[in-house]
Amino acid sequence: MAVSRTGDPTPADRTRAPEARLSGPASRAGGPEAETRAGEPELAIKAVRPPRPGRWLTAGLATLFLVWLAYTIIVNENLHWDVIAAFLLDGRILGGLWVTIQLTVLSMAIGLVLGVLAAVMQLSGNPVLRYASALYTWFFRGTPLLVQLIFWFNIGLVFPTFGVGVPFGGPKLIELQANELITPFTAALLGLAINEGAYMAEIVRAGIRSVDPGQREAAESLGMSHRQVLRRVVLPQAMRVIIPPTGNQFISMLKTTSMVSVIAGAELLTVSQRIYLGNFEVIALLIVASVWYVVLTTLATIGQHYVEKRFERGHHALPARIRRNLRPFARGGA
Amino acid sequence: MMAEPMVKIRSVRKRFGPLEVLKGISLDVLAGGVVCVVGPSGSGKSTLLRCVNRLETLDSGRIWVDGDLIGYREQDEKLHMLRPAELSRQRQDIGMVFQRFHLFPHRTALENVMEGPVTVKRASKAEARQRAAELLERVGLADRAHHYPAQLSGGQQQRVAIARSLAMSPKLMLFDEPTSALDPELVQEVLAVMRDLAGSGMTMMVVTHEMGFAREVGDHLVFIDGGVIVEQGHPREVLADPRHERFRTFLGQVR
After folding, report:
1. A18-22, A127-131, B25-29 — which is least confidently predicted?
2. Cβ B98–A317 below 8 Å, yes or no?
3. What residues in A contact B164, CB-CB < 8 Å?
4. Least CB-CB distance to A222: which of B90, B115, B148?
5. Residue A224 · residue B119 · CB < 8 Å
6. Is A220 on the interface with B (CB under 8 A)?
């Protein structure tokens, strides 16, 4: 049947139109005649869903379990809710919280810079840079972070002074004592950032490699230099792949900072420990610290969502597709 | 006096591992000329094109574009490899259009066209924007300026890609199977833009399967098979009377 799906229907089509309507789906072409389709019944869909007894059963059991859990926690006198409430906004706790935030943000920022550098070195044509980068990731992923933190804190045992001057025993221009330079905070920052850089290097490298080689060729054929290709074309596209695991690393870092407690880093866990060593409210203060860790990770998760959206530029089709795939879960489909 | 050709290709050889893709190719493209390169897949025609703007290096042979030796500097009878910056300079004058468009997906059509002048030639944004708008108008996409590549059809993307290359005001345009990735009904809109470009006097090297385009627009047709030029001449003549069996078989397959 000749029904034009787009554009104005030819006179021949128009005369045939009633016939087309009868054939159902073919008349979906719409157009101006769609509104004038009088006499066409509207077949609204108001269907009854099939019963889902399993869903009601699991919901009931889950509610029951949660009520029981809440009850046991609330009535448990060993948890000292009053202590938790009192310390949640304690000055020392908030101070530790601030140190945790600083350590996380700074070490992630330095780690990201180190990671991009190491990744670009790894993918460069210069063999010296390539091996230097490989050595870096190999060493810092190969040793435990805990060991690295203690090492940086005690670096004064190996190198008592740091200075700028002529190497191999020549005169010094500036000289600093390691014990003055390496506070728990700087040791923590060094350990966390350098270790993080090694992991970020792998994430950034994967991101750069995910960019279609044709993008580089197109940019090069416009006459862009290597640096311009990287900055204008490759990295912006690599970001889409780099951001989600980086958000993951950030959230992980929020909690990894607690390792700094072994060198008395004055972050959230360290200050909580100091308090409970005085008042023996071990569980209460661990809960206080945990509440803040959860708050921080929740905020970071929300932030990650917005950063990801920012770097979705030009990929509007993608989120929609992903959303479509997720719909059955989001709505709790069949 | 015969003018120096825009592109001079001499005895070009190229191998990928054990496979010799180009086995000695010599070819001239005159200024303002349109050379169409055809041949079966794997014949080396795309590789030849990619050698001209040095996306591939040569194993032997020489290529000159507008008198400049591509990739090297000849000094005291010795070849010196060009620095990356010098190579980039050479590429600025050679536009390239790819089979799969390769538009920058994170930039709108307008931004794609602005990218070269702004980043490479340090043109002011306002100036580049105006020129980009003109070029989009020329390829018939003025109304799509603020669309991202993902929101454009293949034919529209390829036309933006052509505008992006033209924004650098190249002396030469290379087209690497520009319509092969397109749905059949979108091929003509791209060919129309290319026809218009040829009419404006642009020097073009076109690797293509579109024999109709070659016959209408081309000044010279080259049939490459197995890494050598098997047959060449004026498109209308060679297409009307192909001499070599291999060419005849090939034409039979693409028609």
Report:
1. A18-22
2. no
3. 222
4. B115
5. yes
6. yes
* Banded pLDDT at A32 (limits 50, 70, 90): very low
Q: Give the pLDDT band (50/70/90) at residue A37.
A: low
A241 touches B at CB < 8 Å: no
Total length of chain A: 334
Torsion angle of alpha carbons B181, B165, B176, B44, nearest 10°?
-150
B115-147 residue pLDDT tens: 999 999 999 999 999 999 999 999 999 999 999
What strand order describes the sheet that includes B7-16?
B19-29, B7-16, B60-65, B68-69
Between B96, B102, B150, which is nearest A215 by CB? B102
Higher pLDDT, A297 or A164: A297
Please state the φ and ψ torsions of residue B76, each to the nearest 5 degrees: 50, 45
Cβ–Cβ gap B88/A217 under 8 Å: no
- Residue A218: closest C-alpha in chain B: B102
As a whole number of angstroms, the distance between CA A173 and CA A163 comes to 7
Give every CB contact of residue B180 below 8 A, 6+ residues apart in sequence: B99, B208, B209
For B167, nearest residue in chain A (alpha carbons): A222
- pLDDT over 70 for what percent of chain A? 82
| Residue from A216, A222, A228, A311 to probe the interface with B (highest B Cβ count within 10 Å) | A222
3-state secondary structure of A172: strand
Q: Show the tokens assigned to A88.
A: 């949640």
Q: What is the mean pLDDT of chain A?
A: 83
Q: Cα dist. A120→A131, A198, A203, A218 in Å?
A: 12, 13, 12, 20
Supply the DSSP string of chain B, one letter for each residue.
-PPPPSEEEEEEEEEETTEEEEEEEEEEE-TT-EEEEE--TTSSHHHHHHHHTTSS--SEEEEEETTEESSEEEETTEEEEPPHHHHHHHHHTEEEE-TT----TTS-HHHHHHHHHHHTS---HHHHHHHHHHHHHHTT-GGGTT--GGGS-HHHHHHHHHHHHHTT--SEEEEESTTTTS-HHHHHHHHHHHHHHHHTT-EEEEE-S-HHHHHHH-SEEEEEETTEEEEEE-HHHHHHS--SHHHHHHHHHH-
CB pair distance less than 8 Å for A221 and B91: yes
With CA atoms as reference, the chain B residue closest to A237 would be B106
Q: Which helix (H) or strand (E) holds A161?
A: strand A161-165
Q: What is the rounded distance in angstroms from the CA atom of residue B105 to the CA atom of residue A108?
A: 28
**Is the CB of residue A218 less than 8 Å away from at least one CB of chain B?**
yes
Does the pLDDT at position B28 exceed 60?
yes
> What is the Cβ-side half-sphere exposure of residue A231, based on CA atoms within 13 angstroms?
8
CA-based Rg of chain B, rounded to a whole angstrom?
A: 18
Contact between A223 and B88 using a beta-carbon 8 Å cutoff: yes
SS3 A166: coil
Q: Give the model's confidence band at A325: pLDDT under 50 very low, under 70 low, under 90 confident, else very high.
A: low
Question: Percent helix, strand, coil in chain A (nearest 5)?
Answer: 75, 5, 25
Which residue out of B119, B152, B180 would a mutagenesis test of the A interface target, given it has the greatest number of A Cβ atoms within 10 Å?
B119
